[in-house]
Amino acid sequence: xxxxxxxxxxxxxxxxxxxxxxxxxxxxxxxxxxxxxxxxxxxxxxxxxxxxxxxxxxxxxxxxxxxxxxxxxxxxxxxxxxxxxxxxxxxxx
Length: 93
Prior knowledge:
The chain is of the alpha+beta class. It has helices at about 25-35, 55-60, and strands at about 45-50, 65-75, 80-90. The chain has a three-stranded antiparallel beta sheet with strand order 1-3-2, covered by helices on one side. The model has no long low-confidence stretch (mean pLDDT about 85).
């Protein structure tokens, strides 16, 4: 049985030379297709800092939907930061 402890969430960073060329979007789409090959996986979550418009656009283009705003969700660089929650749900059938 697959548990939450068995799952890692994608985290992104890119190189300047690939920015704006769709590389992150293709990577996220490929990761999502692979994830759906795991029968026990039914949901993929992305946590995106609200200021990161490029990551928001990448998530939306890959079919992820915004589900919420998480205040003080995690610590980055010694500070608590807010996150947007995006998710993809396995389609029935």
